[in-house]
Amino acid sequence: MREKQSVMLNIHVQTFEHGQPVDEQVETVPGMLYRKGKVYYLKYIEHSEEGPINTTLKLEEDRLTVIRHGAASMNHVYRPGTTTRGIYHTPYGPLHMETHTTAYRFKPLATISEQQGELHWAYYLSLNGNGVSDIHFTLTLTARAP
């Protein structure tokens, strides 16, 4: 992979409550994948009802950091087997967020012949002290011509 690669992202989010699927969202957006040493950064714009959200995913070997700015904002670390806390800022006020990450794997675009990569992470989410749901994210990255 080059140091900077234009990609298309297929974002698939599944939400479960008590083991049962309750919501599913799929979105395809353009993005940029950067590499600095062993760390990858994936940048894209999410579209929500409240407005656009600039999203950066910092992908390290043992953790994922999600940084969002815009209609909603947060800076949260997901590390497998670990519970982490933060604040999710929404137009309706801040939410105290706690996540217990159950899965994380990232397969980058390793070579020019590998035109696809994948990011998957899953976590249990609590907001303001109340258990909410299990969330499963899968992002498929497809290289785009420069």
Automatic annotation (TrEMBL):
SUPFAM superfamilies assigned: Lipocalins
Entry-linked InterPro entries: Calycin (IPR012674), DUF1934 (IPR015231)
Protein name per the record: Uncharacterized beta-barrel protein YwiB (DUF1934 family)
Originating organism: Caldalkalibacillus uzonensis
